Amino acid sequence: MIKIPEFEKIYGRPPRWIVAAPGRVNVIGEHTDYNGGFVLPMAIERYTVMAADISQSSAPRILIHDSRARDTAQIDISKPIAKADPRWSNYLRGVAAGFQNRGATIPALDVALASTVPLGGGLSSSAALEVCTATLLEAATGTKLDPVEKALLCQKAEHEFAGVPCGIMDQYISVMGQKDHLLLLDCRSCQTELVPMDDPSVALLIINTNVKHELSGGEYGQRRAQCETAANILGVPSLRDATADALERARRKMDLFVFQRARHVISEIERTLQAVAEIHKSNWPDVGRHMYASHDSLRDDFEVSCKELDAVVEICRSIGPAGGVYGCRMTGGGFGGSCVALVRADAADTISKQIAPLYKTATTGDDAKNGIEATIFSSRPAAGAMVIKG
Fold first, then answer.
1. Buried-most residue among 137, 199, 236, 390 (CB within 10 A)?
2. What pTM value is reported for the model?
3. Residue 170 bears catalytic tag
């Protein structure tokens, strides 16, 4: 679903360049990245798109109109680019600064921006924006980046300009995604493997719960520290190097929470590789079984789920293979956001219509009197960043 921005309506002339970059969903492999493990994301058929042309103004600046935010930002390119308002523009500023640091001469640009990547659903709208910006600046400056360098530049922009210490998965898949393929990423070596998923009988259903719970106590940092504690007790560099047997032998040396966090990570790394093996064989029931096991582990051992995510997974279990659902799990950091379900492609619309009212009923209560409306869409594995025109 590529929505072209209304550049001509805004600037009165056609664009010279049109570029796009997708959001993503992680099929399996959660909280494994900072433990040196594996993740299995796919690009989704929702894109951030930029249309642009050399500016007709003499001012040394990039002018960006964001149709979704209904806001405009200017980036002064006459000097080193720094953080500034509006906040959403810092994703673009960080990428442009990365090009400046590589010696690229950025021309003054007029840019129109549009996106169909949902905001706040854990589907990497920020990475899509960064990678889209990098793709435009490659075209406008004639500076072609290696795909890995491009992903790392975008990650650095998010770290330094947006202040978000993200992993590398989101930018990697937005840059390197290929149609009808998932991407197995080794988070220790940063090596990638394209995993074919070209069976037209299946699709992924993304169910945005439209909740994000605010948490106290630094749960993410706490879990990371617990994983590091477990690795230290086990005498390994990271939990990537640990085994279930070694963990069981060391159980009495750990408090319960440290043991449970490690058990999730070790089993999730194994599940991810097993799921890849089953995808190669188009063994969708077993892929679904691994997805359910992943969710159960995230809920019980890692404790990053929430009642809304659990409700979606239980609804999918109730529909089951007979109704076209092979498996479902929360995706992303947790405590809200989205679930991903592996479904029969020909049943995706019917399943969506089943989930929506059941989820609304499940979330009806004192804190949500009328229930919550989920946002649901299906996607096949999509292509990564691309130049549409120019």
1. 137
2. 0.92
3. yes
